[in-house]
Amino acid sequence: MGRAEVVQKRQKAAIMALRVAALLATAAATIVMALNKETRTFVVGTVGTTPVTASVTAKFQHTPANVFFVIANAMASNHNLMMIGSDLFGLEFKGFKLPLVAVLDMLNAALLSAGVHGAAFMAQLAKNGNSHARWNEICDNFQGYCNRGGVAILAAYVGLLLTLGITVVSIVKLLKPKPKPQSQPLASEIEVP
Fold first, then answer.
1. What is the DSSP letter of 92?
2. Where are the beta strands (DSSP E) in 19-149?
3. pTM above the 0.70 mark?
4. CA torsion angle 28 34 36 40 (round to 10)
5. What is the torsional sign of CA 68, 72, 74, 78?
6. How many CB atoms lie within 10 A of CB 193?
7. With 70 as the cut, is the pLDDT of residue 186 above it?
């Protein structure tokens, strides 16, 4: 086995490890956020000596940015799962397919970045509120909901960093020099006995 083959096997193993880690991170972010729900009961008034209560539920579906976060992470997980499957089943990406993989990896990174940054913005708003718009923070009442959302966002950021690493490796594979074909002798150069 030549040096080039060893380097190629190491590169393939590295990108496979990055894809598996990114799959685990984005799948964890998807599951944690999709299952994020907390119900609290508050006393809203009293009638005589009887308290009047209201139950309020915080769900990820109540915020469009969190819904997009779940969809983006699920799509990133699906992309990595398909790429891992194609690698395990021995599909070779050569010719036109090689730049297509790099483009899909870049699109995956952009989608994941948009989802995680939108959810991070909403998490900051939920934690601190906005006094100018008179939006109150909710994390003081729904701490478990906010903590689970923070864990999901952290996992998605890890997945984003790994996806960016995958994108870099995909682009480097495009830039590697191609071996020059050996030239064939011209008909006039061939000696006839």
1. -
2. 37-47, 50-59
3. yes
4. -170
5. positive
6. 2
7. no
Residue carrying the six token digits 């008034």:
45
The sign one gets for the Cα dihedral 12, 14, 19, 24 is positive
> What are the start-end ranges of the E strands in 48-123?
50-59
- For tokens 């940015």, name the residue: 65
Q: Which amino acid is at 110?
A: A
Summarize pLDDT for 55-79 with one digit per residue, the tens: 989 898 999 999 999 999 999 999 9
* Residues β-bridged to residue 40: 56
Q: What is the DSSP letter of 186?
A: P
Q: Cα–Cα–Cα angle for 168, 174, 177, nearest 5°?
A: 125
Domain boundaries defined on the chain: 12-176
Question: Of the candidates 63, 65, 29, which has an alpha carbon nearest to the alpha carbon of residue 154?
Answer: 29
Sort strands 50-59 and 37-47 into parallel, antiparallel or unpaired: antiparallel
Q: Do the Cβ atoms of 56 and 68 come closer than 8 Å? A: no
Q: Which amino acid is at 57?
A: T
CB 154 within 8 A of CB 23: no
